[in-house]
Amino acid sequence: MPNTKRRRLFVRGAAATIAVALGATALAACGSSDEDSAESGPVSLTYWTWTPGMDKVVDLWNKGQGKKDQITVTVKKQASGDTLVTKILTAHKAGKAPDLVQAEYQALPTLVSNDALADIAKNVGDAKSKFADGVWQQTTLGTDAVYAVPQDIGPMMFYYRADLFKQYGLTVPTTWEQFAATARALKEKAPDTDLTTFSANDSGLFAGLAQQAGAKWWTTSGDKWNVGINDAATKKVADFWGGLVKEGAIDNQPMYTPAWNKALNTGKQIAWVSAVWAPGTLTTAAPDTKGKWAMAPLPQWSNSENVTGSWGGSSTAVTTDSKHKEAAAEFAAWLNTDGDALNALAKESGIYPASTSAQLSGAFTTPPDYFSNQADFYTTAAKIAKTTAPSAWGPNVNVAYTTFKDAFGAAAKDKSDFSAALDKMQADTVADLEKQGFEVSE
């Protein structure tokens, strides 16, 4: 099969189908008789993942379905984020990538554009039926191909100190306008207390908020990428948060610091826009406030809307270097759709499953211990998860995220114009795409 300079994907949006060029240097992946013959005997697979406790989950496979099918999986623990993506691409260039990799959703276009992930559409059975459409779309990039099986998701929601909201006479905001009014009202009643903070040390939070507002950071027209990081939807989000920071209605300090932990633990900060995994963070950040928090849907931009963004989540993918793609795809589907596997993932790894059926079963029939006061925590979370807006990732998310941390970090600290920081993200992302050889629309 001849080499090709372009891998053409077709990304289907809500109302239209558009062609996407995903890379200038990808090679066409071809099947071989070696792979076909390899599936007839014992198969050994290697899986790169950062998920804690994954070895215990994989043991279930090796002792059960894997033993029956003569497919053994070995877990190789890795770092997460850009570090893993770089390691995968480096291994792939040498033709030595593992059979399976864990990949965050926003990393999939980068891996696909480098021809590192195999299309496993014919090998995952009816897996699509186990996931919400918006989640499944992230692993197909809107095409007929399937580049991974969804594992976990991070639908965003609003967390608040129920006791302090009552003490200060505050109402849980259902719109962002109400959110801003709540922040100002709290400042009037307790000047030393903040509703929340704008943090620039985790790009995923801002990306999720933009996603909720309808942003499409990477789209395509023909063979060209369109970069819309400073589009109207994202500008609305940036101006909203920048305005609150500038007027002092909310804090401007980063998350995950000792100071942030203390603010949450002492009631100096009484709310947090986060995702479904927040209970685990609050358990260690604010241990003295266990049982005092509650969760509600994310505020909306209008009363008629019901949508949330996504912050985090990952998938299980099969690499083009694997000699046993069919077996690897079988394992990936089992890992993320089998009831016992998903229960084990919840127990051992603390993940929130992408599988819709698993969101209301097993470990998710009772609330997190930290939220024992909110019996409907997971039923509410499952409803929110169904409203997740479609994503629009591109092949250089890492560049956009790095610029966000630098530009928005400085803007938050100085209480300066967030729009200028957004324009910097746009310019850096476009420049990097062009440097890599991608065609970018003006």
UniProtKB/TrEMBL annotation:
Keyword DNA damage in record: no
On whether Metal-binding is a keyword of this UniProt record, the answer is no
**Matching InterPro entries:** Bact_solute-bd_prot1 (IPR050490), SBP (IPR006059), TAT_signal (IPR006311)
One Pfam short name: SBP_bac_1
Range of residues in the leader sequence: 1-28
Q: Which PANTHER family does the entry mention?
A: ARABINOSE-BINDING PROTEIN-RELATED, POLYGALACTURONAN_RHAMNOGALACTURONAN-BINDING PROTEIN YTCQ
This chain belongs to the protein called Multiple sugar transport system substrate-binding protein
Q: Origin organism of this chain?
A: Streptomyces rishiriensis
